[in-house]
Amino acid sequence: xxxxxxxxxxxxxxxxxxxxxxxxxxxxxxxxxxxxxxxxxxxxxxxxxxxxxxxxxxxxxxxxxxxxxxxxxxxxx
Length: 77
What we know:
Distance between the termini: 11 Å
Radius of gyration: 11 Å
Number of strands: 4
Helix content: 25-40%
Shape: globular
């Protein structure tokens, strides 16, 4: 099972990233767990300074932007 984490404070881009990530995982047929990390104090644990960010199985894949659906599929595969 993939662990997908969205780091962000709940802004519009953070919500967009959540939607794109969920759609990508579902289209790929992946079993996944999605966690929204909204606690600013946890962001440095990931080395993230700019949100939104996508973390897949503990590895930061993208920060500061929302990837396209196709790019998201590649990132979470």
